[in-house]
Amino acid sequence: MIEETAVTLATVVSLSRGLPRAVWILQAGLVFNALGNGAAAPFTVIYLHEVRGISLGAAGLAAATSSLAALCAGLAAGAIADRTGPRATLLGGLAVAAVAFACYPLIRTAWDALALAAVAGAGGGAWLTGQASLLAAITPPDRRAAAFAQQRVAANVGLGLGGFAAGSVVNTAHPGTFTLLYVGNALTFAVYGAFLLFVPSARRSRRPGETGGYRAVLRDHAFVRLALLNLAFVAGAISLLNSLAPAYAKSEAGVTERTIGLLFLLNTVFIVVFQIPIARLQEGRRRMRALASMAALFAMSWLLVLFAGVGTGARAAAVVLAVAFVVFGAAECVYDAVVGPLVADLAPEGRTGRYLAVSGFSWQLGFIAGPGLGGFVLGARPSLLWLLAATVCLAAGGQARALERRIPAQHRTTPQARR
């Protein structure tokens, strides 16, 4: 296992050659930060409910509050990043999030949980926007596809290892283990901030006459349509994998919790191994065509999930779900190789932060709308959810092809990296 992991990491490093040194430092810091986030996020509702005695409804409301705060803070951070620079915005968001999570062991009431969730969400929305803006600013346009792909690999490595480590440590019978969890998460934000001291600020000067703020962004109709497509892809696909697919797999397909965990591990390993090679394959190819292919892969994975729950038997269902999660992973790899770099390329000088913030807003909104609406469908007619989700994905893929003629010609294809 150790040798296989070493070979995988060596492959990722080889395929990422040519990226600026600052990008490598930024991504290394992200790995440490993702370790903390991956450890804390899966156990927060469990902590609030089983350790602090807060009702599930209030714990869920705290999670929703965090998402809402992230929505608002992300938009504000986009404007701040364009004015003061993305690194300062990222550092500010990290500091706010670190303070919030360091205070999580002090939670005793639902009001405490709501207040700290709002602060943590605001910090999260700010640092995520700052991170994307800084990555775009320090990466040459012809290397952005590889850089955003590498970012996905770094995040997945950290999240996967963090979740695994936390599952081996925390215990509701020992509240002190959760104190360790949240203090450790706060420290990983501080470690990420330390890495940023070695990354250039990359402040981008504003061109004379560039005014209008978000009104100017919304006048870019091609970008607005791309953001709406992003909302559809997130709500109809990405948000459902972690939220509703596990519930369907257990209740309808009859697979065990252990099998569900292995399915997510399979998805993560696939992304870590194939994200950067797929990004390299995308170079010189049409972006909207890639998004249409991605939509077809998402739809195929949902049809496989549907099939797994129609009486195939637990063992056969596990095999079908494994294929579905691999197909889904391939679609996710295409998504990260296309969407982030395209948004950064479409942004004019001085508005990169705002463009990435609006893209992030559509992402966050998709994570609210997808599980929120899908949950009602899943409760009423489980199989119907995956048919509807597949339909949404295919319709969005068709719209992606139609959008191509509105994208500026120089941005329709992923740039070829200069070797």
Compact summary:
By secondary structure, the protein is an all-alpha fold. It has helices at residues 2-15, 21-40, 44-51, 56-84, 86-102, 110-138, 144-167, 176-196, 213-218, 221-243, 245-251, 257-282, 287-308, 314-346, 352-380, 382-403.
Task: Report the total helices.
Answer: 16
Q: Summarize the biggest pleated sheet.
A: none
Cα gyration radius (Å): 21 Å
SSE class: mainly alpha
How far apart the termini lie comes to 33 Å
* Average pLDDT score: 87
Number of strands: 0
The H/E string reads HHHHHHHHHHHHHHHH
| 3D shape | globular
User: Proportion of β residues?
Assistant: under 5%
Q: Detail the poorly predicted runs.
A: 1-11
Q: Helical percent range?
A: over 70%
